[in-house]
Amino acid sequence: MKVTILGSGLVGQAIAYRLAMSELFDTIVVTDISAENLRKVKNLLGESIKTIQANVLEKLEEIVQGSDCVSCALPGSISFDACKRVLNLGIPVIDSSYMPQDPFELDAIAKDKGVVYIPDAGFAPGISNIVVGYFAKNLRTLENVKIYVAGLPIELRGPLRHMVNWSLSDFIDEYLRPARIVKDGKILSVDPLSDLETVEIRGVKYEAFYTDGLRTLLRTIKARNMFEKTLRYPGHLERMRFLKEIGLLSDAEFELANIKIPAVKVLEAIFMKHIYDPNMRDLAIMYITADDGKHTSEAFLRQSYNESLGLSAMAITTGFTNAVLCEAVVEKVRETGTLPPELFGMRYIEYFKSRIEPHVKLEIRKKEQ
To answer: Which superfamily is assigned to 2-124+313-362 in CATH?
Structure first.
């Protein structure tokens, strides 16, 4: 079987590595416009992987021809168009991008072509959805669903008590973009910094703030209360609130020497100097609880940077999830249309755990009352 991976950044590299370990695919193709990214793929996996340097959107149909499935690790700004075109060819797509569009807009196309489209195939959303779907199936009703996730530096440093090894504009957007939550059965849009919380997970204290990660869960899961919060080390959120109060963390513009400059661009330039480190050693954390008013289930995941592979914790948890879903699509899944990860989790949790746990430890259990 043949799988094609669109994009060879950190997530694309992790997808390629995990799929190279699979016995299901004898041909793995990775494509990217960046020669440097493709060189890293070759360094990681050698000649067993075929690479194609190209503008993916310009040569998409040619690149994916003959594929049994396509893994999308493109930026969210261009992934919707790419996924739509691949689905129109009758090829299933597993998509890790965080696109702004509603993935259910691709449902009709996928069903018409008789293939499946799995969006949000990553860490959070992704693994978090799979777990919530499993809990929803096993609990009588869902009263409260609490999702805590984080990508953190292993070493606490920097003026913000946080470091970033990914897109600074996307990082800033987490604190600006209204977060959708469910409260008393109603979907609300809230300020990310409106309800800060201190939580202790496995003996470690963190700060938590709302982030907009529920996405398809808002449509597919019925819960009285449900939210996603992102974890940070204590002291970080106080600093972010200060930046908001002085106008740097905002959608406003500054006028300097008769030139209007967006505040976020000023902040991004400052962050590039003080908190951006592409070589940062990171860890990914996930803690989820769900209850029906009487019984509580919980899930926990902690993944660290892999020194031998040179892959970040976030790349591993995102990329390996995508890869396992690729395997599931060619081996197990028979649904067509848009299949969000939570619906996959309701039906195929044992398959997912058996494939992901040799590499990423995911604990799921009933919590003692």
So the answer is: NAD(P)-binding Rossmann-like Domain (3.40.50.720)
